[in-house]
Amino acid sequence: MKKLVLLFSAVLFFNVSAQKKDKDYSNILKSKNIYEINAFLRDAHPDDPRRSVLKPRVMEMMKEYIKTAHPADQKVKQMQEMLALLKRRPSTKISFDEMNAIIKQKQIAKYKAELAAKQSTVQYTPSNAQNVFVANTAATSNVAAIPDAEAEEFNMLMSVSPVEHKNKTVKILNSLFDNDPNSKECIVLIENKSDCNIIVRMEGVGNTKYRLAVPAHNDNSIVVEKGDYLFTSLVCGAQYASQKTIQKPLMVALGSSGK
């Protein structure tokens, strides 16, 4: 009997704890906060009657924010994007597949621009003390140097000839446009959010291995054979390792700025 009481108490405790973790929208109708109302619209049941009141309200709040915002306000673009979504759907919630499609279109635009310009949008200049790269700007950005053990290898991977870069870009674009499920290859996008340049190593079955250099606060892509891989990297001195099965386009974000 004591065991049953203890079990019941434990279940009740976890249920109460889980409920406390849920967002409290009991006073949402009084809210004047754009982000709070936006979160409610994403989380609430489709038939929740409060939607009919809060959706038009938050849209008007967004319009007013855009109207009165400073020209340099970075939030204006975000508000415009949320407003555009709310005009087409019940909330700004985006599915995983939709997010993948957005990322894919951005990558296609990026590599198309590179082919049109006949050069990389990122020009990399190696240095003995630090690694420096330029991304569509005349100003240079100093970033933390990667470990000496990888500096030479990073320089080599980044220093590709124009012909090699063009061939790689064409291959990536072909992969981005390829929707054939029977294709043997797939694209992997690595986003480096850290302050350090990194090399991501992908080891598959047998001798299948890939290396991808990714500058700090930038991204890079590679086309690999589908299969199981061990991803490893040294991110600002911290070891990263993860097993991934690649059967469709994959995006991996590593590191975080300011750390």
**In percent, how much strand structure appears in the residues?**
15-25%
Say which CATH homologous superfamily of the largest domain is assigned.
Answer: Immunoglobulins
What is the straight-line distance between the termini? 53 Å
In the CATH hierarchy, the architecture of the largest domain is Sandwich
Give the helices and strands as they follow along the chain: HHHHHEEEHHEEEEEEE
* Main sheet strand line-up: 6-5-8-9
- Which whole number gives the mean pLDDT? 76
- What oligomerization state is this entry in? single chain
Catalogue the unreliable spans: 1-21, 121-142
What count of helical segments does DSSP give? Answer: 7
Rg over alpha carbons: 24 Å
Shape: elongated
> What is the count of structural domains?
2
Share of helix, binned: 40-55%
Could you give a short description of this structure?
This protein has about 260 residues and is α+β, with helices and mostly antiparallel strands. It is built from 7 helices and 10 strands. Strand 2 (about 130-135) and strand 3 (about 140-145) form a beta hairpin.
Describe what you observe in this structure.
The protein is α+β, with helices and mostly antiparallel strands and 259 residues long. It has 2 domains: 23-93, no CATH class; 98-254, Immunoglobulins (Immunoglobulin-like, Sandwich). It is 43% helix and 24% strand. It is built from 7 helices and 10 strands. The strands form 3 sheets. Strands 6-5-8-9 form a 4-stranded antiparallel beta sheet, covered by helices on one side. Helix 2 (34-43) packs antiparallel against helix 3. The longest helix has 22 residues, at 96-117. The model is unreliable at 1-21 and 121-142 (pLDDT under 50). This is DUF6759 domain-containing protein.
